[in-house]
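Suppose a colleague, Dr. K., hands you the sequence of a protein chain of 255 amino acids and asks what its three-dimensional shape might be. Before reaching for any lab equipment, you can write down a predicted structure in token form. Begin with the sequence itself:
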Amino acid sequence: MVKILAFAAIVAATATATASAASVPDGTWPTSAGTVQYAEPYTVKAGETFDGGLKTYERSDVSCEGQTESASSTAVFLVEAGGTLKNVIIGKNQMEGVHCDNNDCTIENVWWDDVCEDALSIKSGSASSVSTVTGGGARNADDKVIQHNGLGTVKIDGFYVDTFGKLYRSCGTCGNKPRKVSVSNVLAVNPSVSLVTVNENYGDEATLSNIYIKSSSSSYTVCAWSQGADGGEPKETGNGIKAPSRLLVVGQMAE
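The predicted structure, expressed as tokens, is then:
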């Protein structure tokens, strides 16, 4: 196991200490309390808290089609800005999992049992928007777990992710929208690409702390950067720290 201890330096930005509320997961997956199927996405309204009681929620009319691009119409939950989704297991029958299409949502103890195209999509918002993912986990993601297309900051704390491509991806085809992500107290098992991938040319900033990675392969990177592009796929150009990107240096310790 490799433990990411802390960031030691930053390029072109100032590091800010962030308090973490969650503990590092132990890899335990929750037992479902039953199954609920929806024929359309369920909307969690602004100011509403949806507590799912750790039941499995999925679609009755949608099946996963792998990395086929879809939209919010194939999600299980749509969480409005100011809404909270908690204590939910997302089942395999869906494509887009959960959407926060107006940013500023709270995701608490939500588990994605079998990620399809994406687990969580965060869109729109402003530079001051903050969406939080606290506790919970995701597994079996061929590509991304959390896709950040909007503005602002995503905070991921106390999350468990197993067998995945990327835990977090800052959109590389959504135009010049600087984004920030903080990842703390995470247990990551068998990543295939990176823990986070951000766009160097858009001034993205990633802050990681107290990350545990368990993998039999060394083919992944902890923090990768790419060159965002308006047309075509973004090109990954490296990993770690590189001026003028806003990526931090990490310390590592074998365990």
